[in-house]
Every structure is written in C-alpha cells, then in structure tokens.
TrEMBL record:
Gene3D superfamilies: Ankyrin repeat-containing domain. Coiled coil: none annotated. It comes from the Eukaryota. ANK repeats lie at residues 65-98, 282-314, 433-456, 515-539. Keywords: ANK repeat, Membrane, Repeat, Transmembrane, Transmembrane helix. The chain crosses the membrane at residues 593-613. The keyword Membrane applies. The keyword Transmembrane helix applies. It holds the Pfam family Ank. This is Ankyrin repeat protein.
Amino acid sequence: MDNILQHLDSPDVLRRLIEAGADITVKDVDGANALHLIAAKRNPVLESAQVLLDAGTPIDELDSRLRTPLFRAVYEGESSETVSWLLDHGAAIDVPSVRYTPLQAASHYCLTNVMFLLLDAGANPNISTPEATITPLVQAIDSQSRLVEAVTLLLAYGADPAFAGYGRETPLAKAAYLACSERKPSQINVVFQLLDAADRRGTPLAQNVVNDAFSRCSHHYVHDIFALFLNRGANANSPLGENIESEYTRPLILACETEDIPPEHIDFLIRQRADPTLTGTNGRSPLHAAACNGVVSAIAPLLGSGAVIDQPDDRGRTALHVACDMYKNLVPDEYDLQTQAGLFMGNPVDLASMNEREKNTYRMFVETTADRLRRCLHQLEFVRRLLEAGASPTAQDNDGATAMHFASITDDLQLVLLILQAPFGRYVLVDNSGKTPLHWAAEHGAANVVRAMISRPSAGLTRRPAFLERMVTKTCSLLEKSHEVNATATTTPPSQVLCYSPFIRRILPYVSDRDGRRALHVAAAAGKGDVVAALLERSDLPLTRVDNVGISAMRLAEERNHLGCISKIRVALRKQKAAREYSLRMERLSACVIYFTSAVLILGVLLGLITAAKRWSMELDWIECNTIMQALEFICRQN
C-alpha cells in the first residue's frame, strides 16, 4: 500500500505495482487517494494519473475535507495543465468543498488561466451554495493581484454584478467598499466595469442594489465613485457604513473630512441636495468633519448652503471646539519631537555619510514633521475662518468647556490669540467642574499659555513655543538639504501678549474649582514642573492654600513623587518664608521708629508745656504781688 503513494512520480513502477495487485484505494492521513496527491503537485506526472484512472480510481472521489482532485489541482497545484487534463477526463466542475468550488478557489487567487479552463468547460460563474456562499465574482474582487483580468473574464462568461447568492454582499457592493477603503485605481476601475457590464446587457441594476452598494462607500470620499452612484439615483443624504445601525456617516460628511478636497466636489454634493445639517454617528455634522482635519475649503460652501456654524454634536461640541481639540494632537511636545528626530535635531546632517537605513529614517522624520506643520497651519486657518464667520467662542459643551479650554492646553499662543481677538473671546467661563482655561493649561503642562494668562505683557512671551520655532527652522533646513522642497523658515518675533484684562490676570490664579483646587494644585498633581515654575513667578500666591479635603499643592506633589514640582515649591516656600520674616523685621523696625519718633514728639511737647507752665507761673506771681500791694494801699488810705 505504501509503495503506491511513494511512487507517484514513476508511472512504470506504479503500473507494475497495480498489476501485482496493489490496492489503488489506499489513502493518507487526510483521506486523500493517489489521484488527490498527484493533482496537488505543482509539476505532476500526468502519466501516473492516467495509470490510476485506467485502473479504476474514481476521478471525483472526496477526501476527508470534501475536496475532489480537481479542487486540489486548483487550490494547491495551481497547474492549468493538470486542471485541463482532469476536465478532459470528465471531472465534475461545480462540486463544493468545505469553503469553495474549483472556480471560487481559482477566482480567489485570480488564476485567470485556470478560470478560463473552468468557465470554458461550463463552470457556473454565479455559483453559490450553502457551503460555498461567496460567488466567484466577489472572490475575484476581494483578491489583490490580476484583479481587472479576472473580473473581465467572469463578466464575459455571464457573472452577475448584482447577484449575492448565499453571501452577504453583491459583487458591486464589495467592489464599492474596496474602492473607497483602499482607493486603488484597479479597484476603482472594477466598479466601472461592473456597472458597464450591467448596462451592456440591457438589464439596468435595481435601485436597491445601487443603494446597497453606495451604502458601503463609508471609508473615504472617492469623487468618481460617488458621482457614479449619485448619477444612478443614489441619495446624497443616505447613511453610509458597514453596520449602519451602530455606526454611520454621510456623503457630505465623508467629503468634508477629506484633506485638500477641491471645493467643486463639495459643491457637487450640495447640488445633489446633500443637507449640511444632517449628522452621522455621535451627532457630528459636515462642519465638524471639516474641523477634524482643518479642511478650510469646506467652510464657505457649507455655510453658504445653510450649515449652522455653532451646531453641537452629541457631546455638545461645536466645530470650533473640535478644531481646537484636534490642534493639540498636531503640535508635538519637545520630547516627542526629539525622539522622532534622533540624531537629526541636535547634530549636522550629512547625507553622504549615512547608510541606506539612516537615510530612510531621516526622510521619514522630515516628511512626518513637515506634514504635521502643514496640518497645524491648516488647523489655525480653519479656526480663524470660523471665528470670522461668527463662530461663538463662549459656546460650552456638555462638560461646560469652551473653545478656550481646548486651546489653552496646546501651549501655542497663536491659537489662543485667535480666540481672544474674536468678539466675546476674552470672557472667562468655567466648566462643569469649576475649572478655568488656566486649570486646563496647568494640568496639561502648557507653561507658555499659563504665563500669558497671569503675567503682564512681556517680551519673553512668544506666539509660538521656542521648540516649535526650532522645529520649523530645522525642518525647513532638512527639506532643503534633501532637495525635496525649497523652504524658508520664518521666525515669529517675540510679541507683547495680553491674554486678559489686568483684573482677570490678577485674580485668575486664585480661582478654585469645585474641589477647591487652584491652578497650582492641578499642576503639582499632574507633575508639570514648568507650569509650577510659571505660576510661582507670581510671588503673591499663597503656597500653603489647601483644597476642600485639606491638601496643599506641596502635599499633592509629594503623594505622587513629582520631585521637580516638590523642589520648586520648596524653594518658593523658603523664599516666601524669608520674605515674610524680612517683612516682619521691617514691620518691627518701622514700629520701633514710629515709637521712637512718637516718644521724641511727646517729649518735645512735654518740654514745651513745662516751659510754658513756668512762664505762666512767673506771670501769675507778679500779678498776685501787684494785687496785694494795691490792696494794702487801699487799706492804708481808709485808715
């Protein structure tokens, strides 16, 4: 028995063994007979297969996994010669295995030569069974190689773009999904192929088939695909998504979140009656979607067609909230920047001395940094345009946060200044937990914003953090050296930044949230040493102030082992103690001076009084003597 399976490449030996009475029905551990094993080879000896067939081996016998020799020739051997031989000898074409029929397997791998043999032999191009549910056309569309050729072949043999069979999706729906998710030209062309094939047959696709396929275009906006479906009757306001009940978007939302989208594409959707006030999942409108990526070109068409500029989403956030919130994700902190940069930020770049790996790392850093800077500028411009169009900087979300709360955590004063320059932008509102924008800035380590909020205008405050200036300069230098783009760095000069009125700047550090914590408490708890240092520049802050549960900023830092904050607060406490002692000494000295001066004055007054009294006493004595003499003279005269 073993000899038969071991000599499949030797037809003469195989013939002698069979003539000697060897068992041709012997199988391996997978239940495969000798013909299965020959068919599974990439370069089989078909003469051995002929010997087995002549000896009575069944050509369509199933192995333990319900696979025929033809299926294994397609799925494992991928040999058109073997497939042709089996078909010529009467192999059944549409027998399903556990998952596929032979044509479905060939379509899955886009084996166009094998597909042609099977289709030419009469394979059903629309086959779908309870065991093998996915049609050959869907299998071909889902593959990655030789996609167009395989689809063209199946359509030529009558594959139906609208037939789903036992599967969950039609070929058109699958093609639309892949075209809008991966955006490959070949996959986009397949959608046109399927629709053209239906038109050529004179059987236009039913509207529900078109709508179903259109609903799968939920990942990216591909204008040609959307225009194709909308011109065939799809609704420009229909929800899009794989599972619309749980998560969905809409065509206009998808278009508005696409970076660098031409305004005419948005105008096209609006002409197709797309409603700019309709929302998707989480209540986000097209304007919210544009705010996520700073799509400035979407603002004018949306507002011109009736979009509500302060329309809230399910979290109560307007487009201005979203734009400011997304900006913080685009501005990298200095540590992140230096980590990405590796050797390039602090050292001269010499491309000639780099190996290929270092060059690739270098280029990746340059491209990533340049892209983030570009998106930062787009986001700033988006915020500026929104504010110019009348967006409210005082609108509060469900948590009570305003756009200034989100802007304050970026540590970039350009965004803060945009909001402050808007009408009512200087109003200070607290969120539902009683936190001001200063609390948010302190919690997120935005030291530059903290200084601007509590300090007097100073040349030390810049519109952009110093590290971001260095990033701009360095990136432009790297781009020029790599000869990828001609760039010039423009340094933002120090500017006089006046965030709030003098009164607000004076009281803002003293505002407590609902937990009784001031900005210093928040910064110490978060371990933001730079913010603690910025707040401590205000020498009048009471450092021993406790929150509602009796915890001071120093204790919060100690509990979390924030050593940098602890040392800064300790130094400030010592300074305040020394200042208090000095003030006390000065008060005592002043009191002594006052007492001494008062004593001198009193003594002078007393001396003056004594002198006056003496003079008065002498005058009294003379008057008294004169009176006595006159009295004596009168008495003498009477006598």
